[in-house]
Amino acid sequence: MFIRLENVFYSYFQNTPFEVQALKNITLTIDRGESVGIIGRTGCGKSTLIQHFNALLFPTQGSVIIDGEKIQKKSSQLRGIRRKIGLVFQYPEHQIFEETVFDEVAFGPRNNAVSGQKLEETVKWALESVGLDYQEIYKKNPFELSGGQMRRVAIASILSMRPEALVLDEPTAGLDPEGKRLILKKLKTLREDYGTTLVLVSHSMDDLALIAERIIVMDHGTIGLDSSVRQIFSQGKTLECYGIKPPTTTRIAELLWDKGFDIGKGILTAQELSEQIAEKILKRRRH
Q1: 244, 237 in Cβ contact below 8 A?
Q2: In this structure, is the dihedral angle defined by the CA atoms of residues 137, 165, 7 and 77, taken in order, positive or negative?
Q3: Sequential pLDDT tens for the chain (287 residues)
Q4: Taking the model in full, what pTM does it have?
Q5: Domain range for 56
Q6: Quick one: 186 and 280 in the same domain?
Q7: Domain identity same for 150 and 277
Q8: Judgement on whether residues 26 and 153 belong to the same structural domain of the protein
Q9: Which end of the chain is less packed: N or C, by CB atoms within 10 Å?
Q10: Is residue 173 part of a domain?
Q11: Is 256 found in the same domain as 187?
């Protein structure tokens, strides 16, 4: 158990006429090293939920436990918890404020008294972890970069703190296909090479099919579904009730199944689909 929420409620504008209950009795556990996707309609509580993971928000009721430590307001442990859980907001490039890429990525470590060669090594590692060439980019103004490069610099600025978990809100929003591919590839590498726990809020089911092992479906501040990515995305009709369409490849596989093509359900990627089709064609030829 790495991230644990127990009976969590959260209300905005509490005790006012404008009070809105955003989370209702949420209980969930995210284990160390998991890759989890969080999906649901706009306004269902996804962003509110993940802001509890590193104590940007505190429950109105209930408990949040990170790596065995219960989060409490004004606790001396909050700084350490926020180092463990790196939160990357939607369009993080909008939060870039330094004049060079180096200074942007170095901001967090510097605030933790990292300096000299250790600081340079940290910045270099963070930039290279998101697929950016340190020597080529570290002196540049971040605002001169492409949208995809800016997004990766923003993620690197969180990685430079060496978090054990990376929580991302719509990490590929607004990026072109190549930018999306690079971001997802680097996130997978972080998990495979360093054991980084990944939590991704996304409206792109195709992205989550490539990177997530587990899906949590939010519905009006509650958890509607929570299971493996294959099990969730194979429930097309159930997902429709939550305003969600399965990944494109999954839907194509289901259409083929409905047309009588003997193909497995729960297919997530184009590669899996092409392999299944090739296998069925070969079988038919043999007979």
Answers
A1: no
A2: negative
A3: 799 999 999 999 998 999 999 999 999 999 999 999 999 999 999 999 999 999 999 999 999 999 999 998 876 678 888 889 999 988 888 889 999 999 999 999 999 899 999 999 999 999 998 889 999 999 999 999 988 899 899 999 999 999 999 999 998 888 888 888 888 998 999 999 999 999 999 999 999 999 999 999 999 999 999 999 999 999 988 999 999 999 999 888 888 888 877 776 678 888 888 888 887 777 777 76
A4: 0.91
A5: 3-235
A6: no
A7: no
A8: yes
A9: C
A10: yes
A11: no
Instruction: Round to whole Å and give the CA distance between 91 and 157.
Output: 14
The Cα 68–Cα 172 span in angstroms is 31
Q: State the alpha helices, DSSP H only, in the chain.
A: 46-50, 78-84, 101-111, 116-129, 134-137, 147-159, 177-194, 205-211, 229-233, 236-241, 248-258, 270-286
Query: Does residue 142 share a domain with residue 268?
Result: no
Residues shown for the chain? 287
218 in any annotated domain:
yes
Question: Which residue type, as a one-letter code, is found at position 241?
Answer: C
Spatial distance between the Cα atoms of 38 and 214, rounded to a whole number of angstroms:
9
Q: Looking at the structure, do residues 55 and 197 belong to the same domain, yes or no?
A: yes
